[in-house]
Structures are given as C-alpha cells and as structure tokens.
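Retro notes (design track)

What went well: tokenization of the new backbones is finally stable.
What didn't: we kept losing track of which sequence belonged to which structure.
Fix going forward: every design gets posted as structure first, then sequence, in one message. First example under the new rule, 303 residues:
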C-alpha cells in the first residue's frame, strides 16, 4: 500500500499524538485539499513502483459537503488505474458514505487508537462511540474496514489488549489492522512519552494476529525507529503488511531500497495478485483506456 496526505494540517481534533492538530505547536504548515490530477499522478507513480492499493488521508474532523465531489473524483481516478482505493477522512455522514460507496471505494480507514478506558487521555474532541459508529455504518454500506491503533502512548498492557478486543469484537474483523508505534513529535502533548519496549510492541502484533487470523496486520508508522531485528520479529510474529514509500502522511518511513534490502535478508517476497484480481484490474484498465500504460500491479501488503 502507498499512503498520501491529500489535505495536511489545520485539523480541529486534539489527538495528542498528531502533528496535524491545530491545537498543537508542531510547526506543521496547513495545506488545502490537493487537486485531483496531482493525486492521480502520485497514484500512477505508486503503481509503477509496485503498489496495488492507494490510501488517501485528509486532516479534518469530517469532510465538508463542498469537498465530496473532489474526493469522489480521486477515488474514481485511482480505480481507473486498476488500483484498490482507501480513504481516511474522519467521521462520515450517511450521505458521505453513500457517495464513497457509489464511487467504488474499497477500504475506509478509521482507527480506534487505543482502549476505550485510555482514550480520553489521547483525545477529547471525538468520543470512542463516534469512532465505532462510523466503522459500523461504513461496514453496513459494503465498504471494507481498515482499523487499528497506536501503541507507546503511555498506555498499559491492559489498554493494548482492550484495543485489540474492541477490534476483534466488531461484527466482522477489519480486513486491515494497522498497528502503529508512536512517533513522539515535538510540539505535541506526547513528545516526551517514554518509548515502548520493542518486545511489548512485538507482543501486540502477535496478539493481533491470534485474535484476527484472517486480517492483514499492517506494520505501520514508527518503522524508522525500529531496528531490522525488531521489524523481523514483527513479521515472524504475524505482521504481513506494510506501507511502502518514504512518507506516511507527515511522518518519515523507510524508503523502498531499505525495505527491499530487509526483505531480501529475511527471505520475504511480495504478495502477488490472484488471477481473478488481475483479470478484474485489466478489465478496469481496458474500460478506462489505460490498458498497458503501467507496469503490472504488484500487491505490496508484504513488500
């Protein structure tokens, strides 16, 4: 998967870990919603480098009605490239969900972040119930769910377990479960939080795999602060997905060369699309007049 920030900074939420919150003095400059063509061009580059899913994230509480046509055009444009699409836009109205579903959105990301008990120490501008409600309505519309959380925010072991229990007790397990290690960003309330022990992080990955055996457990933010050995333990404990590319929204991420070297060392290889998936993507490309424009798709959930 590849992740792009389509609207950066100036967010009204007060998430204690996030540099994009307008409540924090992180020094991040806010930007407006990207133009559709720029997003499509970035997705085209991602596909050429092997990505099969393109994730787009906007820093706001929820999308404004005036922005939905642009967002829908992004989804439709990326799908025309033969890629899976994912959006993370905060809370959604029922009308927003219908528009995204009609556009063919494959996945919606909405993390629960932590346990319900620890949640108020992380964010106060949105309730835990708000998050669960959004996830339920997205699922009801037939959109696949991507939901996980962040560890290393000062929470206890019980909170990590509680977060995973919440996810595992959803009506259906999320198809993707991103597990992030906190990146302590200067200017945020969590800039001085003590780092989590790497073994505790690996344990979280392992429990996620046991509790949600068919989900993609994605090793997400924080990989730049992990040793090769820690990442290896995470993969062997059950992580089978990463975000590729040098940035995750506003945070640094290992480059493709570093990932390729690590996977070669560990004997890991990319997951390839099934014949049925390839035929579906070829049909989409043919219908959009783009057949043959790009290199063949490669699923990078494990590359």
């Amino acid at each position: 998967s590849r992740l792009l920030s389509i609207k950066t900074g100036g967010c009204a939420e007060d998430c204690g870990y996030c540099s994009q919150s307008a409540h924090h003095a992180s020094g991040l400059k806010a930007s407006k919603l990207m133009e559709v063509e720029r997003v499509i061009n970035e997705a085209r580059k991602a596909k050429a480098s092997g990505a099969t899913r393109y994730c787009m994230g906007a820093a706001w509480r929820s999308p404004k009605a005036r922005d939905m046509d642009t967002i829908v055009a992004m989804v439709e444009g990326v799908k025309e490239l033969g890629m899976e699409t994912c959006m993370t836009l905060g809370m959604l109205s029922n009308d927003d969900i219908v528009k995204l579903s009609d556009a063919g959105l494959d996945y919606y990301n909405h993390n629960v972040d932590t346990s319900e008990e620890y949640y108020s120490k992380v964010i106060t501008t949105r309730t835990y119930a708000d998050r669960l409600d959004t996830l339920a309505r997205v699922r009801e519309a037939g959109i696949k769910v991507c939901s996980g959380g962040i560890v290393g925010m000062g929470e206890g072991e019980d909170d990590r377990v509680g977060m995973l229990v919440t996810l595992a007790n959803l009506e259906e397990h999320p198809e993707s479960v991103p597990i992030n290690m906190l990146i302590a960003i200067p200017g945020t309330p969590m800039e001085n939080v003590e780092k989590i022990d790497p073994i505790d992080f690996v344990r979280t990955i392992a429990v996620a795999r046991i509790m949600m055996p068919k989900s993609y457990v994605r090793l997400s933010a924080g990989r730049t602060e992990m040793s090769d050995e820690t990442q290896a333990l995470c993969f062997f404990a059950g992580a089978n997905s990463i975000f590729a590319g040098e940035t995750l929204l506003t945070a640094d991420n290992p480059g493709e060369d570093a990932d390729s070297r690590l996977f070669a060392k560990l004997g890991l290889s990319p997951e390839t699309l099934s014949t049925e998936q390839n035929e579906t993507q070829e049909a989409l490309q043919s219908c959009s007049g783009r057949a043959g424009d790009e290199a063949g798709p490669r699923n990078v959930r494990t590359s």
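Added context from the reviewer: Confidence is low (pLDDT under 50) at residues 273-303.
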